[in-house]
């Protein structure tokens, strides 16, 4: 019997039962057709998209393939139109601008906290999301890094934002990254509110800044344009309330709304692995309300919300629209920028299994086509042509930094040396990373993470160079000069020793004291010290005091206990590792013919 054509929407992981319902036929008819094709399936089995499409077409289905998230968004729109439960929500604001123009300081003035003091080099390294309040109304701020290397992060920030606050220094004016930020905001079709910062400085010229902005298509309101500009000072907190008022006004004009009763959906701003808590994701809830216990899909990962924390690290039970939260309970680490969606658990499992299968197939296909890179193959490639290749393994503390470095490093290549990222992931440098680097003749770039003890020893034995950095532009500058053969004498750190914090106690007039056991090398008073928690650098300072029993001492060696304090840092915790080092002026690391930065050459040059 000929059936009438019927429009059918097919999603990833659709089950036999669901497809039968959409086609308005009995499930056993589909099962019989599958059996005829040599496929044994149950009624609740998930089908891949090609199989589901072929089946639907066999029963006169006109197929439209959509992702699961797209289908849920459509269902939400239908529900919203039916219920009309859209309610005003807080505006989501992305802070952009040139490096060192005061973006984080401006947020500090709004939040009245000291975020900037904790950032390496005073520069924001990762996306952070914070809430501010004015007259009982909320504003959500996303603080994006300002250096050019984080262009991709800024672009991602613009995708989730309603308003861009462009911070311009009244003393510097419009700079290259200011122009980038303007381009991102315009591409995302997001209104811009300009905060002209540092007006308290003697050389501040806000009128000059307005002229520069007008030249770039941002005509200030007082000059007859439609760009809101507010002159502020993050230092003296001048006009901060006025800036918040303007943001709320622009938000009101956009009539921002969301349905708090819908299944929660939103975007992953950042993700990482926490040693004690497992995979952790910072997400922005954009629609619906996220509850503890909800099951959700994000990319090829699913999970159940085990716990949520707000922007001040306080536990919460639910998150309304336009709320940034840290979520625990994922089965893996999602990609920053992925969309998350609350879903039925069985459905979530089906879809994730399907996506992971597709991911594995893509990886296998890539491996089969490219082949594994070995040392012999690398030497053959180098002999074949004049182009030298420098393979790089990237390790960083969060996914956002991994993405940025993976994108930026290959761009540093020139006619003589080509940089190739062969592996990039989140977490400390492990033995596996060192073995990969050794086999591939690669260097390891570690950003805000440290090598594990065994990995460090193995790297020394294998002659693998591990470059340690906490400020991204210094890392990029070093590699840029290395591939150009222009490395001048550099300041290099020399490892002294490490101590484990066994206990902490507060001493009146001195501050927080860490009771430590020296595991390796020695700890010296006035030496530089790095505080490591789960192999991630959380603070760098100096050893301000060092005692053994009640005596002040200059150094304490391996196997002995001591009490020490770290200058301007009181958050030492039991289990932290304190790594002592000193900075020395040494010769550069030349790039030799086989493409590896030769550590031994540097040592010899320094000795001579």
Keywords:
single chain, 608 residues, alpha+beta, Arc Repressor Mutant, subunit A, Rossmann fold, Elongation Factor Tu (Ef-tu), domain 3, six-stranded mixed beta sheet, six-stranded antiparallel β-barrel, 16 helices, 31% helix, 33% strand, disordered C terminus
Task: Provide a descriptive summary of the structure in words.
This protein has 608 residues and is of the alpha+beta class. The protein has 16 helices and 31 strands. A hairpin with a 3-residue loop joins strand 11 and strand 12. Helix 6 runs parallel beside helix 7.
How much of the sequence lies in strands comes to 25-35%
Radius of gyration over all CA atoms, rounded: 28 Å
How many β strands by DSSP? 31
Provide the domain count.
5
Secondary-structure map:
Blueprint: E1 6-10, H1 16-23, H2 27-36, H3 49-58, E2 61-65, H4 68-83, E3 87-88, E4 92-97, H5 103-111, E5 128-134, E6 137-143, H6 151-159, E7 163-169, H7 176-187, E8 192-197, H8 206-215, E9 228-231, H9 240-254, E10 257-258, E11 265-274, E12 278-287, E13 290-291, E14 295-298, E15 301-309, E16 315-316, E17 318-319, E18 323-330, E19 339-342, H10 345-370, H11 375-384, E20 388-396, H12 399-408, E21 417-426, H13 431-440, E22 443-447, H14 453-462, E23 466-469, H15 472-484, E24 490-507, E25 511-524, E26 528-533, E27 536-548, E28 551-552, E29 555-557, E30 561-566, E31 577-586, H16 599-607
Parallel strand pairs: 1-2, 4-6, 4-7, 7-8, 8-9, 20-21, 20-22, 22-23
Antiparallel strand pairs: 3-10, 5-6, 11-12, 11-19, 12-18, 13-17, 14-15, 14-19, 15-16, 15-18, 24-25, 24-31, 25-29, 25-30, 26-27, 26-31, 27-28, 27-30
């Amino acid at each position: 019997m000929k059936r009438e054509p019927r429009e059918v929407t097919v999603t990833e992981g659709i089950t036999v039962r669901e497809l039968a319902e959409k086609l308005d036929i009995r499930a056993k008819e589909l099962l019989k057709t599958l059996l005829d094709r040599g496929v044994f399936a149950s009624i609740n089995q998930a089908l891949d998209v090609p199989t589901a499409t072929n089946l639907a077409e066999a029963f006169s289905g006109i197929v439209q393939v959509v992702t699961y998230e797209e289908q849920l968004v459509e269902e939400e729109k239908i529900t919203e139109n039916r219920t009309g439960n859209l309610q005003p929500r807080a505006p989501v604001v992305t802070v952009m601008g040139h490096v060192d123009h005061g973006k984080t300081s401006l947020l500090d003035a709004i939040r009245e906290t000291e975020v900037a003091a904790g950032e390496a080099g005073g520069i924001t390294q990762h996306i952070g999301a914070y809430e501010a309040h004015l007259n009982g109304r909320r504003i959500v701020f996303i603080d994006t890094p300002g250096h050019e290397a984080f262009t991709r992060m800024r672009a991602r920030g613009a995708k989730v934002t309603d308003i861009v606050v462009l911070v311009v220094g009244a003393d510097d004016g419009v700079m290259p990254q200011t122009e980038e930020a303007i381009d991102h905001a315009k591409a995302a079709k997001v209104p811009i509110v300009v905060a002209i910062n540092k007006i308290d400085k003697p050389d501040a010229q806000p009128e000059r800044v307005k002229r520069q902005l007008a030249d770039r298509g941002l005509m200030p309101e007082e000059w007859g344009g439609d760009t809101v500009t507010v002159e502020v000072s993050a230092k003296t907190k001048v006009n901060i309330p006025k800036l918040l008022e303007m943001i709320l006004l622009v938000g009101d004009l956009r009539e921002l709304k969301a349905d708090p009763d819908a299944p929660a959906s939103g975007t992953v701003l950042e993700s990482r692995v926490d040693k004690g808590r497992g995979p952790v994701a910072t997400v922005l809830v954009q629609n619906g309300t996220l509850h503890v216990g909800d099951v959700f899909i994000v990319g090829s990962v699913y999970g159940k919300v085990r716990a949520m924390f707000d922007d001040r690290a306080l536990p919460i039970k639910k998150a309304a629209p336009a709320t940034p939260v840290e979520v625990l309970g994922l089965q893996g680490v999602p990609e920053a920028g992925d969309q998350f969606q609350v879903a039925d658990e069985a459905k979530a499992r089906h879809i994730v299994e399907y996506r992971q299968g597709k991911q594995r197939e893509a990886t296998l296909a890539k491996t089969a086509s490219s082949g594994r890179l070995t040392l012999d193959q690398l030497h053959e490639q180098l002999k074949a042509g004049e182009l030298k290749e420098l393979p790089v393994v990237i390790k960083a503390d969060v996914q956002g930094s991994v993405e940025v470095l993976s994108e930026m490093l290959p761009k540093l290549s020139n006619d003589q040396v080509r940089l190739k990222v062969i592996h990039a992931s989140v977490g400390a440098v492990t033995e596996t990373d060192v073995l990969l680097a050794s086999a591939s003749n690669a260097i390891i770039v570690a950003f805000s993470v440290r090598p594990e003890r065994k990995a460090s020893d193995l790297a020394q034995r294998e002659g693998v160079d591990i470059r340690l950095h906490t400020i991204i532009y210094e890392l990029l500058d070093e590699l840029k000069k290395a591939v150009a053969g222009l490395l001048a004498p550099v300041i290099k750190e020399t490892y002294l020793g490490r101590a484990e914090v066994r206990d902490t106690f507060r001493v009146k007039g001195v501050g927080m004291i860490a009771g430590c056991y020296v595991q390796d090398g020695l700890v010296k008073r006035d030496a530089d010290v790095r505080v490591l928690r789960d192999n991630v650098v959380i603070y760098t300072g100096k050893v301000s005091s060092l005692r053994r029993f009640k005596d002040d001492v200059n150094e304490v060696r391996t196997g002995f206990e001591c009490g020490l304090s770290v200058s301007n840092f009181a958050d030492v915790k039991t289990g932290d590792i304190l790594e002592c080092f000193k900075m020395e002026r040494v010769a550069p690391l030349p790039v030799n013919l086989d493409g590896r930065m030769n550590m031994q050459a540097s040592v010899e040059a320094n000795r001579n």
